[in-house]
Design a protein that fits this description.
By secondary structure, the protein is an alpha/beta fold. It is built from six helices and 13 strands. It has one domain: Rossmann fold (3-Layer(aba) Sandwich).
Length: 201
Amino acid sequence: MVAIIDYGAGNIKSVEKAVEFLGQKAIITKDYDILLNADKVILPGVGAFGDAMLALKKYGLVSVIEQIVEKETPFLGICLGLQLLFEESEESPGIAGLGLLHGRIKRLPDYTGLKIPHMGWNTIKIKEDSTLFKGVSDGAYVYFVHSYYLEADNKSDVAAFTEYSTDIHAAVEKGNLYACQFHPEKSSSVGLKILNNFLDS
């Protein structure tokens, strides 16, 4: 069973539909016992970093997420869910993230001819031997919607890169932690392959 963390952030239903399309049972929940006993856990989200962290704290989900990761349950962050795994974001100064991975979230720099937020399809450069991208061609297109991006401290954690006004760490893998800045559930057959790789992890 795949548990999708419900903390009031958007984009949850499309993740649920994608998981179910792949033949897995998905439950959208904030119930501690269900989350702690799930086979896989997904933290989706769109919106502001600070609001999301306040919501996770309000529902008592920070310690639950820490326990899930400690149990080595496969855990996937999507979009804002990736950003929350890190320590801080320029979007919400003074509000600490989950700090499960090391790095910071920065605003995409202005660049002539490029609009921010970054909305649309971009190619990704994939690191070899990545679990998430097994069977995905280097240069595949995935769908992004974001104004902030990850700069990871440990380049060895980065599983995919892209470029949009700057170099972007587009996905990470470390142990049982996986995360994508892009939306696999909106990235057609490539995104479904990535999601399926996570479900098989």
